[in-house]
## 1
Amino acid sequence: MADITISHLVKTYPGGTERATDDVSLDIADGDFTVLLGPSGCGKTTLLRMLAGLELPDSGSIAVGGKDVTYLPPNKRNMSMVFQSYAVFPHRKVRYNIGFGLSMAKKPKEEIDRKVAWAADLLQLGPYLDRLPAQLSGGQRQRVAVARAIVMDADVLLMDEPLSNLDALLRLNFRSELKKIVKDLKTTTVYVTHDQSEALSLGDRVAVMRKGQIAQLGDPLDVYDAPADRFVGGFIGSPPMNFIKAAVSGDGGALIVGDQRLRAPSLLQSYSSTDVLLGVRAENVAVDTQRSSGDVPGTVLVVEPMGSSILLTVEVEGQTIKVQAPPTFRTSPGSTIWLTFSPNSMRFYDSETAMALVAR
Ligand SMILES: Nc1ncnc2c1ncn2[C@@H]1O[C@H](COP(=O)(O)OP(=O)(O)OP(=O)(O)O)[C@@H](O)[C@H]1O
């Protein structure tokens, strides 16, 4: 069993004024693929490096399989790490690079050969085993780094932005390959990225980090569908979630957006006479050129055909939002269109704290 229990990890770098991780606690089940996601500087690499033993926390603890590893050196933790920079030895052949960790661990040659062949096969590196890294493409070099990590039979696989040096297409292809490989291996994996689409596609769970803390932890689709606060809604999704200033009527029955009154969901009944933020995803706004079927008028500012949809920038009651219209929808800048917010996909946030409203 290689479940991970992270408890109250605090880390401030020497000379730093802010905590790089600020009381982070996280439980990761055996075999789970957990993604740490967040903007630059939010502390995800620091958390990963503390898991690896490359940094020590000021306080808090890390247990793997029930064993406290907080202050163990990296080589005593049975973890493998894949870095963003590949970190392959340039003057050594692919074969040597993949088997490096096993050689260091003084494994028998026969075992090293067998595992290198297995990993090379899995990552389609068989034909390149006798090449030098410089004779490989970026994607192939990244595969070598992954192969080197998986031959180790580690309890935990740690990956720090492993796809960030690849171009967009390669990244997309390798992402799905990586997902399949890690799923087959069933190794507990912690993966750091600032790319929200990578987090959504790869993770069993995603921990969205902000300023050294976990802002939300959950199934990627749940986090996408119901962000815990405005920060998470704005960070996950492309385009980000729309946040529209609104108010609840005095009787709690209506949601007021500018001059428009919409039926308020039952959640809002206990928030009568309160200013709220309405959160709605671009794909959950229906559009029509006719008033009859729409609730709220908007003025089209920008029309961007995306192939499978049309992305509209629309001004609604003095606020700008993004709307994803079907590819057949025809409009032009300056036109008035009618919008309907799908009731089940409306989310509500406190207008001051920007935290999701809960039933009360
Ligand atoms: N070696 C270091 N010395 C001092 N401060 C550091 C060091 N490494 C990171 N920090 C600081 O700690 C905070 C968290 O950094 P960290 O690298 O963990 O963030 P991150 O989310 O991984 O960012 P990125 O995506 O840019 O790598 C930042 O404010 C950063 O400036």
## 2
Amino acid sequence: MSSADKNLSVFATSELPDVSHRRFAILVAEWNTEVTEALYKGAYQTLLQYGAKAENIVRGNVPGSYELTLGAQWFALRDDIDAVIALGCVIQGETKHNDYINHAVAQGLTTVSLKTSKPVIFGVLTPNDQQQALDRAGGKHGNKGDEAAITAIKMLGLQKQVYTKF
Ligand SMILES: Nc1c(NC[C@H](O)[C@H](O)[C@H](O)CO)[nH]c(=O)[nH]c1=O
Ligand SMILES: CC(=O)[C@@H](O)COP(=O)(O)O
């Protein structure tokens, strides 16, 4: 289902776990900051709305989305971080540069998540233009930052369920 068919900020909030004790890192890429700051605001406020505490949320900035992978690894390897949310916006340009970045970031964040066994959430917009980005950062299609925060919370709930033995 594409974003055009759903609002990214409409999600099931039933049965969300208690995350008042959980610690989150939010990484923000510094390219397209009008968009990435809106994503960060959405993610941060959503974490607070659903029970996370401000003192348990740390923010880190990276130069561009390509650097989200190493930033995510640094945070995920900390024993006092439970989940990482990576936020960026890679707008298609004249060349294939965006393709290389997007694939590297998607694969890199997945690798970090699997290596650390921690949720590392892909909150990176890959739009064709600025308007598509704005539409997904608090515009008509909602906010992928909200979605990324909910995804982190849900994955921590699954993690607790899986590791709660019979
Ligand atoms: N064009 C965009 C970039 N480019 C920069 C790269 O992410 C990276 O920082 C650089 O290649 C050095 O390693 N980054 C974005 O986040 N968004 C873009 O649209
Ligand atoms: C995704 C990018 O780095 C992009 O801004 C580069 O633009 P271009 O492909 O026109 O050089």
